Amino acid sequence: xxxxxxxxxxxxxxxxxxxxxxxxxxxxxxxxxxxxxxxxxxxxxxxxxxxxxxxxxxxxxxxxxxxxxxxxxxxxxxxxxxxxxxxxxxxxxxxxxxxxxxxxxxxxxxxxxxxxxxxxxxxxxxxxxxxxxxxxxxxxxxxxxxxxxxxxxxxxxxxxxxxxxxxxxx
Length: 170
Ligand code: FES
Prior knowledge:
Blueprint: H1 13-25, H2 33-44, H3 49-59, H4 63-72, E1 84-89, H5 92-96, H6 99-109, E2 124-129, E3 141-143, E4 146-148, H7 156-169
Parallel strand pairs: 1-2
Antiparallel strand pairs: 1-3, 3-4
Helix pairs in contact: 1-2, 2-3, 3-4
């Protein structure tokens, strides 16, 4: 988390109240951070820095501890996902087979600089993930339930176009 003094204005108060209620119902909130963060993610869809800070203050633990938990578990999402989230494995097997070049090609094709993870139209997002257990197919990426294996940078435009076509078909 780069900034910690963030505005809470963008967070829906009704949803925050649900988090409050959960925290207050727990005998040991600081020992139940994962449960609380799951709830927060199910309410907001992801865990932006200001929401992590809110949880930290509510529970009474340092923001760094909350962020440590969020970063550690891959099921927690820190950035909003697009309709099609492209999860690119950067685990060792994928990395040595060129995953970084595939990632770079997606960034170029989708016009997404490093600090951005979602396209402005909300259609695509990119997530860098750890091993997804398909190393034999390295480099691997996942979009929804579909796994793509042995992906080369040259395949990237076609993959993106496939999802753009799906959108046009409605
Ligand atoms: S390292 Fe990428 S699937 Fe295992």
